[in-house]
Amino acid sequence: MAENHPTRSRGLALAVLCAASLMVVLDSSIVAVALPAIQADLGFTPAGLAWVVTAYLVAFGGLLLISGRLGDLLGRRRVFLGGLALFTLASLVAGLATDAGVLVASRFAQGVGGALASAVVLGMIVTMYPEPRARARAIGVYSFTQAAGASIGLIAGGALTQALSWHWTFYVNLPIGVAALLLAVRVVAPDRRTGLRAGLDVLGALLVTGAVMLGVYAISSAVWGALAAAVVLLAAFVLRQAKARTPLLPLRLFRIRAVTGANLVMVLMVAGMLGFQFVTALYLQQVLGLDALRTGVAFLPVPLVIAVASLGLADKLTARFGPRAVLLSGLGLVIAGLVLLTRVSGSYFTDVLPPLLVMGLGAGAAIPALMGLAMADVPAADAGVASGLINTTQQVGAAIGTAVLASVAASRTASLGGDHREALAAGFRLAYGVSAGFLVAAVALGALVLARRTRAAAPPAPAAPAAEAEPAVCTAGRA
C-alpha cells in the first residue's frame, strides 16, 4: 500500500477499514441474543440452532490464514473488497431467509466473506502507518473494534430483535457494507503484490483450513474425534510448510520472538476474555433476570472504557513504557476484574459493573500492545499472512474459552443442585476463576517469551517489480 498518503486520506482509509472490521466482529455476537426468536420462527431443533453460530465460526476461523496469504499474493485491497462484498451479500440472504438450511448456508458464506475482509486489515494498517507513534495510534483504533465489537454486538442484537425482528440483525450490515465498499474503492490505495506466480501452497491451504475448521467445530460441539483429526491435519500442515518451496505460512515467522510470543499470548488472553463475555451474558439473564435488551445495555460500559484506553491512552503508554510492559500491566487489570467477579453475589451495580470497568481499562491497553507486538518485526511482504495468523489465534482462543467456561459452569451447577439460581451463580463464579487462570498463564508466558523491547516498525520490503503492481488510482485528498 502506498505509504505517503496525505493525513486526511490515510485517516479516512483507516476509518473505512476499521468500520468494516467492526461489522465483521460484531456479527459473531449480534445474533446471540436473537437465537430464541430465530428458533421459534424457523423451527430449528436445539442442536440445529447451534449451527447458526457454528457455521459462521467454522468458516471464519478456518479461512483466515489462507485469506491473509492471498492478500500478500493478489493484493490486500483486492481481497478486502471481495470479502466485504461477499459478506454484505450473504447478510442480505440471511435476513431474507425463511428456511433453516438457507440461514445456516448464508451464515457460512458470511464467515467466508468475513475471513477474506478481516484477515488483511491489520497488514494494511501497519503498511499504511510506518511511523512508530502513528502506527501505535492506528493499531489502537483497530484494537478498539476488535475488543469492543462483541459487546456492541450484544447491545445491537438485543435492541434490533426487541424493537424490530431478528431479520434486522443481518439487514443492519447492508448500509454499512455498501458504504464501506464505495468508500474503500475511493480512499484505500492499491498495494503491491507478488502475484500468484510467486506460488500458493494449495495442499498446505487445504490442510490448515481443514485443521482449523475441524478444531473450531470440535471445541464448539465437544466432538473429540474431530479434535483428534484436527491435530493430525495440523501436524501434517507443519511438515508441509517445512518442505514446501513457497509455503502458505513461512515457518521463519516463528523465529521472530515477538510473533511467536504474541500469538501464544493471544490464544490464552482471548480464551479468558471472550469466554468471560459469554458467561456474563448468561449470568445477567439467568441469575439477575435481565431481558435481551437490558443484557446488552449492561455491557455498554465495557466498550466505552475500552475506547478511552485504546484510543486515548494506549499509544502514549506504549511509546513511554514499551508494548511488553503495557501488555502485562493491562492483563493484570483484567485478572483483577475477574478475581472480583469470582465473589459476585447478585447485584449488577455493586458486583458486576466495577469489575467490568476495571477489565475494560485493562483490555483497552493490552490489546493494542499485543497487536503491535504481533506485527512489529514482520517483513512487509509477509504482513498479510501475519495478520491472518493473529486473527486465527484469536478465533481459536475464543472457541477454547467459550467451550471450556461453558462446560465448567454447567458441571459446577449440576454438581450442586438445590436452589437453581444459587447453583447457577456458583457455576459462573467458578468459570470466572478459570478465566482468571487463562489470563495468569498469558501473563507468565508473555513475561517469559516476549522481549523487553521490540522494534516499533519493520523495515519496508523491497518494492515489487512494476509489472506486478496494481495500476495507480486516485485517492481522496490526492490529485
Concise synopsis of the structure shown:
The chain is mainly alpha-helical.
Structure write-up:
Helix content is 77%, strand content 0%. The protein is mostly helical and 479 residues long. It has 18 helices and no strands. Mean pLDDT is 80; it is low at 1-5 and 454-479.
Note the topology.
Elements: H1 7-30, H2 35-42, H3 46-74, H4 76-96, H5 100-119, H6 121-128, H7 132-163, H8 168-171, H9 173-187, H10 202-221, H11 224-243, H12 257-286, H13 292-298, H14 301-321, H15 323-341, H16 348-376, H17 383-416, H18 420-449
Helix pairs in contact: 1-7, 1-9, 3-4, 3-5, 3-10, 3-17, 4-5, 4-9, 6-7, 6-17, 7-13, 7-14, 7-16, 10-11, 10-17, 12-16, 12-17, 12-18, 14-15, 14-16, 15-16, 15-18, 17-18
Domain Major facilitator superfamily (MFS) profile: 13-454
Protein name: DHA2 family efflux MFS transporter permease subunit
Keywords: Cell membrane, Membrane, Transmembrane, Transmembrane helix, Transport
- CATH C-level class of the largest domain is Mainly Alpha
Helix content: over 70%
Largest sheet: none
Chain-averaged pLDDT: 80
Spans where pLDDT lies below 50 across 5 or more residues: 1-5, 454-479
Write down how many β-strands occur, each being a DSSP E stretch of 2 or more residues.
Answer: 0
Q: What is the C-alpha radius of gyration, as a whole number of Å? A: 21 Å
| Count of domains | 2
Instruction: Report the portion of residues in β strands.
Output: under 5%
Assign an overall shape: globular
CATH 2nd-level architecture of the largest domain: Up-down Bundle
Give the name of the CATH superfamily of the largest domain: MFS general substrate transporter like domains
- Structural class, by secondary structure, is mainly alpha
The N- to C-terminal Cα distance equals 17 Å
CATH topology of the largest domain: Growth Hormone, Chain: A
Number of helices: 18
Provide the succession of SSEs: HHHHHHHHHHHHHHHHHH
